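Standup notes, structure subgroup. Blocker cleared on the magnesium ion input:
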Amino acid sequence: MIEVRNLVKRFGGFTAVDGCSLTVETGSLTGLIGPNGAGKTTLFNTIAGTYRPDGGQVLLDGADVGGMPPHVLFRRGLVRTFQIPHEFSRMTVTENLCVPVPGQSGENLFAAWFGWGRIAREEAAIRKRALEVLEFLNLSHVADHQAGRLSGGQKKLVEIGRAIMSGAKTILLDEPAAGVNRALLGTLTEDIRRLHRQGYTFLLIEHDMDMIAALCDPIYVMAEGKVLAQGTMAEIRADARVREAYLGHGMSADGATGGAARAGRA
Ligand SMILES: Nc1ncnc2c1ncn2[C@@H]1O[C@H](COP(=O)(O)OP(=O)(O)OP(=O)(O)O)[C@@H](O)[C@H]1O
Ligand SMILES: [Mg+2]
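Run returned:
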């Protein structure tokens, strides 16, 4: 479980995250929405260890992890994906999935000298796991393609694949639907749902209200660095403050059919 208490993150004199509190229950699929510039990605980065908090706490299963770097959090089971995919563009899709696995002895010089048999076995196991993950994500047909040549949607799936490969069970997804075509969007939504059923916990930032409505409960709404509201999709939609926050940014919280709610997409 992630508990964020009164979290603050400043950039110079500007407070991007201004005393946010939220809880991501283990096994939940929690949503995080809000107009562009609300501070969602900054909140993610502060939870995932990219930024040090300027105030408040991040508790992971009760332990204060505020300020711990991403690779430490990732050993504690927390991993995030990026709003803009960070694939290794010249490597194949399978290679991309094989890169970030923690505890790979190939990284260790002594193991490399003395344990080559074990490394070969581990690499084979990792590759096998990568192929399973690609199959799960319906990406087997592009397993040997250069990752940089994939479509935007496929790159998002690769990001999720890498998160799965990390072994972390809590995944922060930053706009997985951004830049994904309608056809792939259904697949992506279903993949997240299936992973959730398998026991993964998600915190999902998204401007696509269809995806949020289909997947998330509860949903937190952020505006101007603060949590404005929380609840089910129905509760959020009925909330006048949420409506106002979106309208102030020329967006509609009704977004299910309105393209404006997706204005934040790349
Ligand atoms: N590294 C940074 N340095 C200075 N200001 C930043 C930095 N990162 C973000 N900001 C500012 O902090 C505010 C919140 O940005 P953030 O990216 O967290 O918003 P967001 O809710 O993720 O928006 P979007 O929906 O457009 O992705 C914005 O005003 C942004 O310009
Ligand atoms: Mg963002």
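Discussed briefly. The beta strands are 2-11, 14-24, 29-33, 55-60, 63-64, 78-80, 170-174, 201-205, 219-223, 226-231.
Next: hand off to the docking folks.
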